[in-house]
Amino acid sequence: MTEAVLVTGASGLLGRKVLQAFERGGWKATGTGLSRPKPPSIVKLDLFDQAAINSTLDEVKPHVVVHCAANRFPDKCDTDPEGARALNIDASRRLAQATTSRSVLLIYISTDYVFPGTPGDAPYEADAAPRPPNFYGQTKLDGEKAVLEITKESNLGIVLRVPVLYGSAENPSESAINVLMDLVWKAQEKDAEITTDDWAQRYPTNTEDVGRVCFDVASKYLAAKEGRSNLPKMLQFSAEDGFTKFEICQLFAEIMGLSLVGMKGKKDAGDPKAAVQRPYNTHLSSQVLKDLGINVKTQDFQAWWRWEVRAIRK
């Protein structure tokens, strides 16, 4: 019997690579999207509609659902708190209820922003106490709690936390890392005076690597069957190389052979009264995945971008 997976948010930056990973693994892979469906591989699904969720699950009959759909931009969450709660919490709860009642394994994609990122705290182990620094992180933490509470008895819920992501994008704005290439180009303009954060540490992780980990986790947990209750429910995956935004821009400029005289780094922590607080360092430990025997190797950040830029230039 061929295993089947349903990937929510499959038209997004991460969802596309998760869907691709399962396709390459020989699974019957179906994605869902709301604004960018691409039938038959990505079908339209409104995650605010319980009947639509039920219908899609009954039609696709997945063994696993990977829930990538989310409002993952902190500023947008702050400007639309009701919408953020609806997608990051309520839709996740709705999906967990539907998957659990059908004995389907659910993998909920979460974030490193569930942790405060206080200097000296990182790396954070999977069992570290969460304390989100902003509203976005709180909604994702509340989504974690909803999924794990609903699946507690069935052992059919897993949380996978990941940091800021980069990779092949339809638009640079899909990724907080990819979009920095645009910033480097803006710094080439005459009289440019761009200031970029050179304080907070980020651990950009490639979406293709996250897709591979999702596939490996799904395969392992599905095969475990009755032994699944002994497997951890909280997982984390991250690259190990840390950069500030300014350091990433410096790297991009070097790759492109461009000057950065129009950009300078800002070393301080920023305004403590700012509406959206950014943590200093929320580096995630991947130790639990290692203990499970899951491959946690990641692509070399600089090497990937050298290849990507060369590909764009052709």
Number of β-strand runs:
11
Order of helices and strands: EHEEHEHHEHEEHEEHEHEHH
What's the arrangement of strands in the largest beta sheet?
3-2-1-4-5-6-10
By secondary-structure content and strand pairing, the structural class works out as: alpha/beta
Average pLDDT over all residues: 94
Radius of gyration: 20 Å
For the terminal residues, how far apart are their CA atoms?
Answer: 42 Å
Q: Low-confidence parts, pLDDT < 50 over ≥5 residues? A: none
Proportion of beta-strand residues: 5-15%
Helix content: 25-40%
Shape: globular
Quick one: biggest sheet? 7 strands, parallel
Structure overview:
It is a single chain. The longest helix has 21 residues, at 81-101. Strand 5, helix 5 (135-150) and strand 6 form a beta-alpha-beta unit. This protein is 39% helix and 15% strand. Helix 2 (50-60) crosses helix 4 (81-101), helix 6 (179-186) crosses helix 8 (245-256) and helix 8 (245-256) crosses helix 10 (301-313). It has a seven-stranded parallel sheet, sandwiched between helices. Strands 7-9 form a two-stranded parallel sheet. The model has no long low-confidence stretch (mean pLDDT 94). The protein has ten helices and eleven strands. With 314 residues, the chain is α/β, with parallel strands linked by helices.
